[in-house]
């Protein structure tokens, strides 16, 4: 995507692009909660985090075994608690390692915008989406401080995406129900912006979101 297409909110004070997303990534078809659509993928827990959780969980379980064998009742009870904690870490590690196959990101379907970069997924009907616009947050007061790009989603009903998304979006504007973080995107931020703009402005084209035609459109 060319820099000249970048909206002002996603530029640095000197006019250059403030990076967001992965320019080499691609959208794809995916399914979330029984709905198929165009997935604009985001980053997720990597294999390193999953392996770390597995190792930590295994160490806790081994330590718990020794404590449970103790003749001291309180120590043995502590061992059972430690073992349970270890089992939870192991389960979290397995979940993280399997996460690579999940449809994580923003899913545009014929009926909904599904926000799924952090569980649980939230479905916002297209009929509720009034506007999408680029916004940014600055880390500090000086104009030279770094900023992070977001795509704000304004809705007809305030807070329709739930309190979790609303709490962040409200930092930009009261009419925003969600703010999509561009730093997490695995596609170029302009691909995200153009996909939202096209399907919001052309409701008759939304049926193709359940087909490969949507991928061809956003990358064509």
Task: Report what the structure shows.
It is a single chain. By secondary structure, this protein is of the alpha+beta class. It has 2 domains: 3-43 and 103-219, no CATH class; 47-100. It has helices at 47-68, 73-98, 163-169, 189-201, 213-219; strands at 28-32, 35-41, 105-108, 112-116, 122-125, 129-138, 147-155, 176-181. The strands form 2 sheets. Strands 1-2-3-4-5 form a 5-stranded antiparallel β-sheet, with no helix packed on it. The chain has a 3-stranded antiparallel β-sheet with strand order 6-7-8, sandwiched between helices. α1 (47-68) runs antiparallel to α2. The longest helix has 26 residues, at 73-98. The relative contact order is 0.18.
Write the layout of secondary structure elements.
Layout: E1 28-32, E2 35-41, H1 47-68, H2 73-98, E3 105-108, E4 112-116, E5 122-125, E6 129-138, E7 147-155, H3 163-169, E8 176-181, H4 189-201, H5 213-219
Antiparallel strand pairs: 1-2, 2-3, 3-4, 4-5, 6-7, 7-8
Task: From the structure above, extract its key features.
about 220 residues; alpha+beta; 2 domains; about 25% strand
- Number of helical stretches of at least 4 residues: 5
- Percent helix, as a range, is 25-40%
Question: Which of globular, elongated, flat, extended, rod-shaped describes the shape?
Answer: elongated
Q: Looking across the biggest beta sheet, what order are the strands in?
A: 1-2-3-4-5
How much of the sequence lies in strands comes to 15-25%
The run of helices and strands is EEHHEEEEEHEHH
Region (Disordered): 1-28
Transmembrane segments: 47-69, 75-97
Keywords: Membrane, Transmembrane, Transmembrane helix
